[in-house]
């Protein structure tokens, strides 16, 4: 019975998502104008997905063949499942999100509470799909392949591949549209944000869904399954006699699903008027349920509280990183205020101080991760039993991600509220509606920043856990930095996040330029567009973003996938180990740096717009707008892309571990 | 006899420097106005040095006591010598540079060739002092302490400590003055660069000497002696029976000194009218002499050409990195032109594209370093004899740095030419003079960028070589990334360059703000200052830069010195090994990223000023000025500071290796 518990919990999650989705559908989607705009956004989002699927189909076929031939057919099947399950989670999540946005706007006519509930329910569908599909897929494959864990890394590879498309492609999409819409619309034409006369406005709103809902969901889906895969793999090596203990990570994930549902129900029905508090309380309740449940589980299955300690270490580190992110990126704290002050002397000082804040903000999260890793390792007795210690680290990752259901819900709520505001603006709803959606949106900005911090932390811990699995899979006894080959791997690995950052930022620049030219063209060539008499060609802008995003993610994607294979084949398993180490270290740092610098610039601008440092239209404000524009690709494209890079490289190494171990190191052999 | 050859070559270098210096002193220092301005700059530079020495005295006393008590008195003596020799090199170099500047300006009245010769001779004094004092100090201590290499790491620590003050403090100084002078003078008051009415103009010119002459010299002095120390240390472990072989790195350095002198003589007496070509040819000739001489030495001492291969690998990688740096930062190539194009859409796109160029530019240098490391290791037979392979890597570092004499000369020539231009402007010399100094200055910008690339490459290789010595000194058999403690070290180590970057950038911001306020105050409170009727208070501005630079470098300095000791004491030698690995990897990347982004922004602005993309005064130009201002602390403060960070951390670890190996890992023992 307990074998099927994870599947049952997964099914419960999907039913819960279905119920939430039905509830949203029942709500009114407002007047004709609102329906029309919502339809544009919905169609745009689906257009992106369908175009993406075409690319994905080719990609999946190629990788399936490669994996099937080089590894085995079971891993290939796992890969296909991982890819499809991630696609499904993104599809359902985005479908419901693009329904919930207009209904949130309509509900805002009748007050904040209902609007919050709909937006949050929309996000919760994404959250539940992520955890439900993740656990169902993993459990069925694990049980279906006779509890042999050696194939399920393929599931992680599938999840990672989709995350690459969704997060990197989505990140380029959303920022190309955003920057394009802003630079021509706001700056050149002088029309407000979300103005329906701006041809890029629909693409901008679609981008929120593509990048912040589907992209973020796929990113966390990858972390979620990656951490479980790592714990299952390591557990199978250790507990050869106890399938129950091997299954433990799945039990823990099941507990997290129940905890998330409890938290979501609480938040949805809260009487509190402060949306931030409502969401926080829901998250804390879910965390509390996990803590209590884990204590019981840990004691029942392992007969002690060591496992409990590792898991709680992960959970606490995750929450702390979120909090730290808030401190560096919210304008209630001094870092953002300092950037606003520095904006008074012009754009250069805005940029310098923002970069400094971003770099500075890496310190505490890294120290937290370091402490978390040590606690998780040593509490499991890692000093005497390294394998158990590494297992502890992987459990910390699972623990951190156990409440992914509600984390994604809170995170995906933001773009829905943002979209609702856009729809309200474009449909010319009364300003009271816009006030409510603005308030919800501003809470969404904070939750987005926290969610980003969490995504980075979880990516780091997941990658470290998978790194340990990689070493087990290749039978590596050490990855020795005194071996120059490892050192070379380390240097090259550390370089990849910089290369990835450069490529993705340039991609946003290129795509945004195409968008800018198209918007300018429409402003010039469509008569009556500025007077609102004739409609802009939204579809063309959506097309441009879609095509550019998918084209531009090919090169970074190829680099992320081939670099580890190339390194392994040329310089062998140990060099590849060094490369992963370097990529994870530099990648996590670049991710925190870029995400927090971007978040801080964004809020420095908002702070000034709230009337500080001269307020809107002042020179400080102009400087802050420059910071915000630089921050856009930082926080929404390149920063999050690092998560994908480090996880994808690690899982590729794990999947191809046997091939590299047996046939790798070609150049090394020549050098000898 | 051959034992004393290095000392003799060192003495030759100093005599050569003395001769050059005499030659410069003989030249005319122009009219009274020129003499007056030159005196201001000279006094300002000396004021900085004297104030710095007060801090240094305290610092040296403390560290001497710590080293004397914890390690031994011989290492402490070496430390004092290393510090004093580096101070002397900086003192002589800067003294002559502040004499050469005005004489270059005066010589420019009589044509470019003579001006070039004086400026280059001034730089050559710095170069010869660096290599001469470096090799004399090392040789005498090595011979004096009975050829026992275990103490001379103290010499490296001394050199590193001074480099910290000179490079980080100097970097903050020069950019505070530069940014302060530009923002109020050029932007607010609308007066041209180097205008004598600007109170910060002298501080700005002093900054060129403090940061670009003394700072750069101390940085390369540190790399130079660090690489030799590493090779001596490793050689002593390997060649227990052959003092000649142990001495080899000193012989190689001697050869490099002769080669540099040949190159300098050639360049000084070249008939070529193209200054860039003249300097390049000198460098290549020095390189060729090293190549030929090394081939002979290698065969004579080791009986084969393996050693030759390692050394040449280092030399070639150093020159290639310089060339690559030029490609990414010179406006003859497409990266800089792209930034200029992107400036047409405003400051935000200038910044984004510059950051992307900087990140992108890390790829090739890292791959070159990787290849160089592998070649140097395997050509020495590292596959079968790891120690020999590591020795090969340290020889590659010595090889790369063998021509430091002429490299520093070419590099220090730039700020002298820059100063000459400033003096010409302030003394209202005919525009033909300014044209010549401008041409020399623009060549200086390219050589500075190349020099920066070289400094980074050499810092990386030196740090890697010292890293190998550290492992030997602590008897570490491995630094295993599968040990979570090493992984934690790696993460924390990789974080430090980000922290260092944040701190140094903030320091520039703070110091620049003080400068801005002072300049504004003087413009307001000194009547007739804008009409040129009354003199600004230059000294006050020099004071502000000096005080701020020395105050602001304390915190980063303490972090760089204490972090490795703290990590070693808490988590042990292996964690410290991981930390160095992480710091070197991330530090090199950040250094390349920041230096090249800054260089590219600088030249994008110059490219636009040359009439492209709308030319001076256009919107593109305004955007490019923002990029240049952000780039200033990037390329001249934070970027170069990374070199110091990684070398200082490594040498601290090496010096305290025995203490950490015997008493470290306190927390680790508690966790067990």
Automatic annotation (TrEMBL), chains A, B:
What EC class is this? translocase
Offer an example of a GO molecular function term for this protein: inorganic diphosphate phosphatase activity
Q: What cofactor does this protein call for?
A: Mg(2+)
This entry's Enzyme Commission designation comes to 7.2.3.1
The residues that cross the membrane are 6-25, 55-71, 77-97, 118-143, 149-166, 221-240, 246-267, 279-297, 303-322, 366-383, 390-410, 449-469, 481-500, 553-573, 580-601, 644-671
Q: Where in the cell is it found?
A: Cell membrane; Endomembrane system
Question: Mind listing the UniProt keywords for this protein, alphabetically?
Answer: Cell membrane, Hydrolase, Ion transport, Magnesium, Membrane, Potassium, Sodium, Sodium transport, Translocase, Transmembrane, Transmembrane helix, Transport
User: Which topology term describes how it sits in the membrane?
Assistant: Multi-pass membrane protein
Keyword Transcription attached: no
This enzyme catalyses: Na(+)(in) + diphosphate + H2O = Na(+)(out) + 2 phosphate + H(+)
- Record entry for activity regulation: Requires K(+) for maximal activity.
Site feature location: Determinant of potassium dependence: 448
InterPro entries the record matches? PPase-energised_H-pump (IPR004131)
The free-text function statement in the UniProt record for this protein reads:
Sodium pump that utilizes the energy of pyrophosphate hydrolysis as the driving force for Na(+) movement across the membrane.
Q: Which PANTHER family does the record match to this protein?
A: K(+)-INSENSITIVE PYROPHOSPHATE-ENERGIZED PROTON PUMP
Family affiliation:
Belongs to the H(+)-translocating pyrophosphatase (TC 3.A.10) family. K(+)-stimulated subfamily.
Task: Provide the assembly information.
Answer: Homodimer.
Mind telling me what this protein is named?
A: Putative K(+)-stimulated pyrophosphate-energized sodium pump
Q: Which organism is it from?
A: Clostridium aestuarii
């Amino acid at each position: 019975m307990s074998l099927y518990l994870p599947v049952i919990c997964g099914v419960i999650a999907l039913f819960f998502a279905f119920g939430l989705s039905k509830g949203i559908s029942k709500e009114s989607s407002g007047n004709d104008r609102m329906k029309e705009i919502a339809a544009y956004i919905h169609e745009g989002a689906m257009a992106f997905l369908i175009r993406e699927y075409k690319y994905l189909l080719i990609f999946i076929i190629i990788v399936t063949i490669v994996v099937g031939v080089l590894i085995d057919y079971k891993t290939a099947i796992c890969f296909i499942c991982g890819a499809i399950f991630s696609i499904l989670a993104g599809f359902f999540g985005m479908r419901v999100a693009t329904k919930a946005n207009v209904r949130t706007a309509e509900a805002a006519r009748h007050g904040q509470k209902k609007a919050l509930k709909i937006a949050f329910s929309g996000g919760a569908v994404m959250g539940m799909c992520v955890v439900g599909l993740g656990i169902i897929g993993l459990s069925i494959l694990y049980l279906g392949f006779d509890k042999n864990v050696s194939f399920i890394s393929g599931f992680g590879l599938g999840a990672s591949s989709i995350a690459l498309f969704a997060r990197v492609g989505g990140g380029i999409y959303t920022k190309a549209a955003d920057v394009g819409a802003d630079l021509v619309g706001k700056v050149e034409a002088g029309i407000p944000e979300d103005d329906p006369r701006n041809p890029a406005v629909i693409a901008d709103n679609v981008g929120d869904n593509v990048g912040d809902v589907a992209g973020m969901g796929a990113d966390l889906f990858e972390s979620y399954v990656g951490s479980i895969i790592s714990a299952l793999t390591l557990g199978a090596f250790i507990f050869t006699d106890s399938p129950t203990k091997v299954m433990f990570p799945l039990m823990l994930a099941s507990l997290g699903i129940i905890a998330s549902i409890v938290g979501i129900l609480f938040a949805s029905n809260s009487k509190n008027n402060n949306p931030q508090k409502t969401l926080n309380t829901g998250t804390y309740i879910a965390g509390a349920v996990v803590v209590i449940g884990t204590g019981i589980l840990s004691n029942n299955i392992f007969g002690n509280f060591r496992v409990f300690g590792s898991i709680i270490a992960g959970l606490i580190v995750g929450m702390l990183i979120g909090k730290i992110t808030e401190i560096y990126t919210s304008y209630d704290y001094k870092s953002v205020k300092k950037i606003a002050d520095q904006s008074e002397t012009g754009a250069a000082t805005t940029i310098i101080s923002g970069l400094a804040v971003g770099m500075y903000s890496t310190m505490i999260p890294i120290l937290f991760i370091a402490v978390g890793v040590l606690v998780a390792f040593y509490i499991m007795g890692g000093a005497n039993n390294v394998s158990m210690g590494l297992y502890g680290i992987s459990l910390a990752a699972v623990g951190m991600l156990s409440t992914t259901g509600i984390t994604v819900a809170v995170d995906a709520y933001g773009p829905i509220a943002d979209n609702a505001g856009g729809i309200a603006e474009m449909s010319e709803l009364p300003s009271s509606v816009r006030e409510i959606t603005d308030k919800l949106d501003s809470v969404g900005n904070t939750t987005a920043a926290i969610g980003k911090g969490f995504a980075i932390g979880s990516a780091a811990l997941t990658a470290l856990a998978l790194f340990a699995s990689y070493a087990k899979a290749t039978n590596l006894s050490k990855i020795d930095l005194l071996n120059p080959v490892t050192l070379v791997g380390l240097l090259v690995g550390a370089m990849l996040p910089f290369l990835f950052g450069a490529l993705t930022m340039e991609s946003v620049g290129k795509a945004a330029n195409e968008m800018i030219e198209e918007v300018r063209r429409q402003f010039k060539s469509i008569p009556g567009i500025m007077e609102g008499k004739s409609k802009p060609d939204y579809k063309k802008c959506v097309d441009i973003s879609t095509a550019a995003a998918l084209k531009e993610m090919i090169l970074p994607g190829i680099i992320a996938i081939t670099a580890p294979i190339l390194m392994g084949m040329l310089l062998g398993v140990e060099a590849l180990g060094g490369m992963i180490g370097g990529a994870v270290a530099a990648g996590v740092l670049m991710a925190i740096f870029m995400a927090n610098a971007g978040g801080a610039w964004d809020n420095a601008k908002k702070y000034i717009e709230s009337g500080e440092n001269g307020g809107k239209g002042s020179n400080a404000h102009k400087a802050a707008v420059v910071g915000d524009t630089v921050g856009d690709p930082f926080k929404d494209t390149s920063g999050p892309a690092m998560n994908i890079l480090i996880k994808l490289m690690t899982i590729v190494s794990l999947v191809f571990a046997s091939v590299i171990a047996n046939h790798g190191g070609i150049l090394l052999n020549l050098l000898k």
